[in-house]
């Protein structure tokens, strides 16, 4: 017992050191990422004067985001080699319907995917995490007379007879099961420092847990020993939580998946020992419960990403400076000047409403001899200010064009075009703009497909056969009603054959809002070909 405790302490110290080393490797990136996110949010006092910016980062992200991910993807499942196998086809239909049910019934996948894409566009790395989540509830007491003769649906993998233990009072039963997709914030994800993702041997995510959650998951002893170091923002500078606010503190628990040892571990910040260890809980093909993250600019020697904003941050700063100067000149561009103090009625002429009104002037002859109103008033010259203002507007547009060239966001992508351009010129511009963004679209489609493959593996491995039937509604299809023997065989195939036998993918255009005219043209072409 003492040896096991010592091993758990040694294991905890080892992984604490691993996480600390990874944190140092990505420290500079996190500091830079925080500045990028703050710039995107533009967190300033809205009433502050003298601060005028042009938030080109927000504009660019809001333009690219719907171009790569605008709606929930549509899963597609088929046999890998398209063999003429009725059982395999039925299994593909069941799995595809189960995935579609998961995506529609639980909004976590859509939220996690969109947040991951946003993290890819801002700090430069987007991560999501899959897991199996069975929900149990107390089983209602059932009389023996009621249980006699009750059988599970045939062909669903059951034993054919309800077990006696399931009918006893106080037992638990499985209410429902799901495969959630968790979004992992960019600052709460760690992995081994490596040149490429294929060489990464461990990944980890940080979860903030209350004392009740820690006690429920790891026991009362661990709940009493774990430090609750994470606090709300307004209390982070305090030495200790105010009285009555202790429940707001959270424990920082790391979930670490180690591929060499084929096990998952849970450790907490400030706690020396390991909270729990499990051998490969999900048994996924790639072991890790997360796909390769969505990365921004990478090189072959490190996985530390470079945010897209860093590629044009100098031009963005120049844009802010020009906007500030334009603002100052606009404020200076006003009617102002000096006048002769002896002309008493002149101020009344300029400052009061004098519509259809004559103002008397004493000593008209002397007033006219001095040149009248023109000789008594001299206005501030505006020609130089207006000329400088026009040049600043031209300079700002030039800087914006440089930014669009760096990012590849052509005006045709932003929905604007030059009236003098021909339709051919616009098509060429649109084609080359799509080439720049196509790589990002393909990466997002790959990421979405990887998440669906992991969900599919969890569904096939852990879900009960009756759950698959209920989720898919396969019994309501014409084919299942005409050939009912295919359903049990398809369920057996999903349970026994590896998910590698199925091809699960996401079409790129299924995540993008297509133009209605383009969609109509595609349908016409399809009908014409048919």
Description:
The strands form six sheets. Strands 6-7-8-9-10 form a five-stranded antiparallel beta sheet. It is built from 18 helices and 16 strands. The chain is of the alpha+beta class. About 5% of the residues have low confidence.
Quick structural overview:
This protein is α+β, with helices and mostly antiparallel strands and 530 residues long. Helix content is 46%, strand content 15%.
Main beta-sheet annotation: 5 strands, antiparallel
Give the integer mean of the pLDDT values.
81
How many E strands?
16
- Class derived from helix and strand content: alpha+beta
Question: What is the 3D form?
Answer: elongated
Percent in helix: 40-55%
Describe this protein with a few key phrases.
single chain, 530 residues, alpha+beta, five-stranded antiparallel β-sheet, three-stranded antiparallel β-sheet, 18 helices, 16 strands, elongated
How does the SSE layout of this entry go?
Layout lengths: L1 H24 L1 H15 L14 H13 L6 E5 L6 H20 L2 H14 L3 E6 L2 E6 L5 H4 L24 E7 L2 E4 L4 E3 L10 E8 L1 H8 L1 H6 L25 E8 L4 E6 L7 E4 L14 E2 L1 E3 L2 E5 L6 H20 L4 E3 L4 H8 L12 H6 L2 H5 E3 L3 H25 L15 H40 L2 H8 L5 H5 L3 H11 L5 E5 L9 H14 L1
Antiparallel strand pairs: 1-16, 2-5, 2-11, 3-4, 6-7, 7-8, 8-9, 9-10, 12-13, 14-15
Helix pairs in contact: 4-15, 4-17, 9-13
């Amino acid at each position: 017992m003492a040896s096991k405790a010592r091993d758990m302490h040694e294991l905890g110290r080892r992984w604490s050191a691993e996480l600390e080393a990874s944190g140092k490797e990505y420290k500079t990136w996190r500091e830079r990422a925080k500045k990028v996110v703050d710039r995107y949010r533009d967190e300033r006092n809205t009433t502050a004067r003298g601060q005028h910016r042009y938030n080109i980062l927000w504009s660019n992200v809001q333009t690219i985001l719907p171009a790569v991910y605008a709606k929930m993807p549509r899963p597609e499942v088929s046999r890998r080699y398209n063999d003429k196998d009725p059982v395999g086809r039925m299994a593909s239909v069941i799995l595809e319907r189960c995935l579609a049910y998961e995506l529609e019934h639980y909004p976590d996948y859509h939220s996690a995917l969109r947040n991951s894409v946003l993290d890819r566009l801002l700090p430069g790395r987007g991560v999501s995490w899959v897991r199996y989540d069975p929900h149990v509830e107390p089983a209602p007491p059932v009389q023996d007379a009621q249980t006699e003769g009750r059988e599970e649906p045939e062909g669903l993998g059951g034993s054919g007879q309800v077990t006696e233990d399931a009918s006893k009072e106080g037992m638990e039963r499985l209410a429902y099961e799901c495969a959630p997709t968790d979004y992992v914030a960019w600052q709460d994800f760690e992995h081994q420092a490596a040149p490429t993702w294929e060489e990464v041997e461990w990944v980890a995510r940080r979860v903030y847990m209350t004392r009740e959650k820690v006690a429920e998951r790891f026991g009362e002893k661990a709940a009493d020993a774990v430090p609750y170091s994470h606090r709300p923002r307004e209390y982070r500078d305090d030495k200790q939580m105010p009285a009555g606010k202790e429940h707001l503190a959270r424990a920082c628990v790391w979930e670490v998946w180690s591929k060499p040892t084929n096990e998952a571990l849970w450790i907490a910040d400030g706690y020396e020992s390991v909270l729990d260890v499990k051998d490969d809980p999900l048994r996924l093909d790639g072991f890790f419960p997360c796909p390769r993250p969505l990365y921004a600019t990478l090189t072959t020697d490190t996985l530390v990403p470079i945010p897209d904003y860093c590629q044009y941050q100098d031009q963005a700063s120049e844009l802010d400076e020009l906007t500030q100067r334009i603002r100052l000149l606009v404020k200076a561009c006003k009617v102002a000047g000096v006048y002769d103090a002896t002309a008493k009625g002149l101020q009344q002429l300029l400052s009061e409403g004098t519509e259809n009104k004559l103002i008397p002037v004493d000593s008209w002859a002397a007033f006219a001899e001095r040149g009248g109103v023109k000789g008594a008033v001299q206005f501030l010259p505006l020609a130089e200010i207006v000329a400088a203002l026009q040049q600043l507007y031209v300079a700002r547009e030039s800087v914006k064009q440089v930014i669009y060239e760096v990012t590849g966001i052509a005006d045709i992508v932003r929905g604007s075009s030059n009236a003098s351009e021909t339709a051919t010129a616009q098509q060429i511009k649109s084609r080359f703009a799509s080439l720049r963004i196509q790589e990002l679209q393909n990466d997002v489609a790959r990421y979405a497909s990887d998440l669906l493959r992991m969900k599919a593996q969890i569904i096939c491995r852990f879900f009960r056969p009756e759950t698959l039937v209920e989720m898919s509604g396969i019994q309501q299809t014409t084919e299942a009603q005409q050939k009912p023997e295919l359903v049990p065989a398809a369920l057996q195939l999903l349970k026994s054959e590896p998910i590698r036998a199925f091809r699960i993918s996401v079409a790129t255009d299924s995540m993008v809002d297509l133009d209605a005219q383009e969609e109509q043209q595609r349908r016409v072409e399809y009908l014409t070909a048919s």
